Amino acid sequence: MTENNFWLKKIEISVSEAEKRTGRNAMNMQETYTAYLIETRSVDHTDGQSVLTDSLWRRYSEFELLRNYLLVYYPHVVVPPLPEKRAEFVWHKLSADNMDPDFVERRRIGLENFLLRVASHPILCRDKIFYLFLTQEGNWKETVNETGFQLKADSRLKALNATFRVKNPDKRFTELKHYSDELQSVISHLLRVRARVADRLYGVYKVHGNYGRVFSEWSAIEKEMGDGLQSAGHHMDVYASSIDDILEDEEHYADQLKEYLFYAEALRAVCRKHELMQYDLEMAAQDLASKKQQCEELATGTVRTFSLKGMTTKLFGQETPEQREARIKVLEEQINEGEQQLKSKNLEGREFVKNAWADIERFKEQKNHDLKEALISYAVMQISMCKKGIQVWTNAKECFSKM
Amino acid sequence: MDMNSFSPMMPTSPLSMINQVKFEDEPDLKDLFITVDEPESHVTTIETFITYRIITKTSRGEFDSSEFEVRRRYQDFLWLKGKLEEAHPTLIIPPLPEKFIVKGMVERFNDDFIETRRKALHKFLNRIADHPTLTFNEDFKVFLTAQAWELSSHKKQGPGLLSRMGQTVRAVAMSMRGVKSRPEEFMEMNNFIEIFSQKINLIDKISQRIYKEEREYSDEMKEYGPIHVLWSASEEDLVDTLKGVASCIDKCCKATEKRMSGLSEALLPVVHEYVLYSEMLMGVMKRRDQIQAELDSKVEALTYKKADTDLLTEEIGKLEDKVECANNALKADWERWKHNMQNDIKSAFTDMAEENIHYYEQIILLQVIMSIRR
After folding, report:
1. Domain PX spans what residues (chain B) (predicted)?
2. DSSP single-letter state for residue B3
């Protein structure tokens, strides 16, 4: 729970609880899901006291809806990602089940993190739908759908087409795309191997636990060694069980890396939008250029470009001067419109690039700060693990030497 | 202290053996030093085998010289063990490493296997040398000093294979009888041996498993570190931090390797030796029971007047002495064995704990350096 640092200065947001619920889904079938309690508090600046202003329950799919809405309405923003839908990069002990309490707990933290990121974003925090998400429990879904944002969304096919055909995208976005691909690839790899390392470490610790049991049984037949064996065995048990907390902490570290894995996708979304806009612009410019040419040809009578009208004219006889005038007029109107559109598209494009790039710079600073913190906290975790290890083995050594 | 007072001429009465127990393992009194090294492969038309070089240094008068160098193969060690068991049926003879390793290795002459065996053979000979009675055994002396052809001809002496086989069959039948009339203290001993055997076997398995898990952990870590270096190539501002993490992981890897080698040098061989010892002990128990059974059957024969009573009485007298001797020998050696076992186990596990402490201390230093870099 941290204080928002931009617009909603006096607001604290927390996802404080998670609860299992059963209900009926769209197809009227029974389903079980988890609901999360979101509490909003306003903080009095003078004495730091906080008062609960809103509290409501939301499920994961509503968070998804909110994010999809934000993606459509703020395409120039690197929209914070949600925690993963299903547990991935799992090492053997963790359940991949969405109902597993550890998974639910980590997801709760992830969802809170998401809301805090949105609330501290200079642009996103002003959004009405976001405000309603925090304050209006009933009817919120309908309100979102009424904005018609799904219709405004760019089709994936269109975006893919643009990616392949755009001729002059801004170089910075091309580089950014490469960067985000690399980021995604390297973090995935790192998380995969980390999961395997965690698995192995778990094995090493847990096998030591077997010593505990055997030492205890052995101590029953030993007179002088008995006490030493018994107490050493106890320390082996302590050692074996210490790995559970250690790996739980590491899961939180992995979650921090995962957030940036998913951020890579958000970066790519911004790049895609730029490509789409740029492609649109290029198409509009191309279209305008061809219309101008047609107009010129009609006016001067030379046919340089192929047109169906030209062909049919050749085949079925020339048109009258009046017909020609009419066509030229239509084209001139279209050209005018086209020029206006091109101007505004150009403006839009430049605005987009400017705003997007500002947000990307903001994102870069946030990323460098967060990842550095995460990596250092990882080192701190290792230190804590070592301290525990030293203590346990020092105790065990004492028991052994007293045998 | 006159070294020659421990000559083999001295009667091995129970009392004198108890006195000898007090002086065992004192380094100043050690007068026989043995090393086993330089395994060498020999290829003949029939077979391939390994010999080990054995160097003996001694100040004992009964040895012709003060230094000896011979080559022996595993078969020769087996022969020696057999002779010792024959001569001292109720003494705890040190165990030999196994003939074959059951799991894993197919190749008999794998380097690790040979090295492990060499160390175990070295231990075997030194344990005999440290044993107050066995150290003066004649076959032991021949083993250490005789040239190859001398050893061969010496081996050919003694009871033939057939008569020894015949003895074994009778002995098994006898030992069953001996169990029933086993005195209380040996019941306790047997109970201890059974439970000890179970537990030490489990500890052996656990320790091997730990070694295996650490190996796999180290392998994964070797892949984990370099990913951070790879990542640093695309992150200008995080290069130092990422490379720092990579270097920590790398050193952790090396520390793990060291921990593993500590385990395989100190703990694993000791635990495994005691697994083999526990098998030995069960054999010793059986032989004691056999000797007891021989006496019991003669006593029973006397009771039912099955044969010449005078002859029987004489035989019984001899057997009673034999039983008393055997029991006392075992009792004394048992105390000695237990004392050594406690020391060895204590030492091995203390070393293991020390290795682990050292391991964590090494890593903590690196992580602290890492976390200070901001």
Report:
1. 30-151
2. G
Q: What are the residues whose beta carbons fall under 8 Å from the beta carbon of A318, sequence distance 6 or more?
A: none
| CA-based nearest residue to A338, from A298, A273, A283 | A283
d(CA A175, CA A267): 11
| CB spacing of A376 vs B241 below 8 angstroms | yes
Task: Assess: ipTM above 0.90.
Answer: no
DSSP string, A203-219: HHHHHHHHHHHHHHHHH
What pLDDT, in 10s, does the model give residues A249-296? 999 999 999 999 999 999 999 999 999 999 999 999 999 999 888 888
Q: Return d(Cα B357, Cα A392) in angstroms, integer.
A: 9
pLDDT of A280-337, one tens digit each? 999 999 999 998 888 888 877 766 666 666 666 666 666 677 888 888 888 888 889 8
Instruction: Provide DSSP, B153-177.
Output: HHHH-SS-HHHHHHHHHHHHHHHHH
Residue type at A345 in one-letter notation: K
Residue B167: both structure tokens together: 């003895």
Contact across the interface for A397 and B223, Cβ inside 8 Å: no
| A&B contacts, CB < 8 Å | 139
State the pLDDT at residue A328: 85
Report the alpha-carbon distance of residue A220 to residue A238 in Å, rounded.
Answer: 20
Q: How close A251 gets to chain B, by Cα (Å)? A: 16
Q: At residue B202, what are phi and psi to the nearest 5 degrees?
A: -60, -45
Quote the tokens at residue B257. 């390797």
Q: What mean pLDDT value characterizes chain A?
A: 88
Closest CA to A133 of A244, A302, A227, A8: A8
Q: How many CB atoms lie within 10 A of CB B114?
A: 15
Q: To probe the interface with A, which of B235, B236, B362 has the most A CB atoms within 10 Å? A: B235
CB-nearest to A372 from B227, B241, B353 is B241
Give the span between the Cα atoms of A208 and A211, in whole angstroms: 5
- The answer on pLDDT for B177 being more than 80 is no
* Separation CA A270–CA A255 (nearest Å): 23
Euclidean distance between CA atoms B6 and B135, whole angstroms: 10
3-state secondary structure of A220: coil
Asked if A214 and B367 come within 8 Å (Cβ–Cβ), the reply is: no
Probe site for chain A from B346, B354, B361, B374 (most A CB atoms < 10 A): B346
Write out pLDDT tens, residues B276-303. Answer: 999 999 999 988 988 888 888 888 877 7
A164-192 per-position pLDDT tens digit: 888 988 999 999 999 999 999 999 999 99
H or E element: which one contains A19? strand A11-24
For A158-187, give one letter per residue: b (16+ CB within 10 A) or e: ebeebbeebeebbeebeebbebbebbbebb
